[in-house]
Amino acid sequence: MRSPVQTPEPVAAPPRRGRINISTFSSLQYRDFRFLWGSTFFTAAGNWVQQLTIGWLVYELTGSALLTGIVSGVRALPFLFAGPVAGVLVDRLDRKKFLIGVEIFLSALGLGFAILLTTDHLEIWHILAFSLLSGLGWAISNPLRQVMVPAVVPKEALMNAVALNSAAFNLTRVASPAIGGVLIATLGPATNFFIQAIAFFLVSVFIWFIRTPMKVRRDESTGHSATMSRDMIDGIKYVAQEPTTLAIIVLGLIPSLFMMPFTQSMMPVFAKDVLHADAKWLGIILSAAGAGALLGTIGLASLKSVHRKGIMLLVSASIAAVSLMVFSQVTWMFLAIVLIAVQSCFQMVYNATNNTILQIITPDHYRGRVMSIFMLDHGFTPAGAFLAGALAQAFGAPTSFLFGGTITLILVLLLASKAKRLRELRE
Asked: How many Cβ atoms are within 10 Å of 194's Cβ, its own excluded?
């Protein structure tokens, strides 16, 4: 018989008086969260520069929308086969040291790829291998970074901290694609990977300064066994036996299959074929998406409390889906920029609310495993990316985007009509 869920006590120190009083930025009162939040800027900068450059590079080299989608999907594959193992390690190892090691690995990987580009030795298989290895790094670092947030802030500040962490990620999403597009056009794509290598190294420096203990005690009371396989099984059983946890994880599959693969992997195709845009304008479009996501997370961070979280999830997902459907039919650049910003805004509200609920209801000794299972949705992105690429190749990018938005809306409405527990989910 399983024991009841208990929310772990926060380990963060109480805030000092006279610091930041604005509720939107209240989590920045905590020293270690400021370092974690700051490191997210460099993580996100490397990520967005990489995504923009890889997508543009593959489409320029091959002219294939399908291959562009496949390369993007390959990056997400490690979330399926490495994610569960990473979750077990996150709950067993010192989380701080583990994250530093992963960031240094990603830095070295970016440097190696930049050298290949500079020396004109790059082939398609290099891009596939790079995408796979960088995906492996992200499959480990994502749950690591997520489980560190509740350790550095108290429970009542968690929603604000999750939203601000997402805001930091999206703030660089505004500037990085535009800058990356300009750099591709002026200095060539290799420059972007040198920048990525520097960014990931700086992340490891920020993480080093965090003082909060990041190693979970391994004993019977924390749900750890002697073997990794037993720990993995225990994590799966925990998720299966917690209805709300399972519902939140299932919810995460929808955008990962039918929204993100379309807006991320197919945007270079849509920009070039439909909007007739070059790399600079592609960067501006992606920056608009980042601005919308930033607005959504800042708005969420400013809310002191959201009692009907289930309704917020369903409404925000529906608006994001409808925005994607309308975007698919647009040929005017200005309107496309506005619509992708709206779509990203509500998708980010949906994602951050999902994340917050899961972090609050999960005990610390299970967080690594639960978050790695939650992020398995990233592993299904290759299927979505393949579908998006195949539809764009056969019927054009507008049809591909329209399909993604329509399926998302249908699934969300079905879920809203059937899942009473979700509709009634409250604070």
From this structure: 19
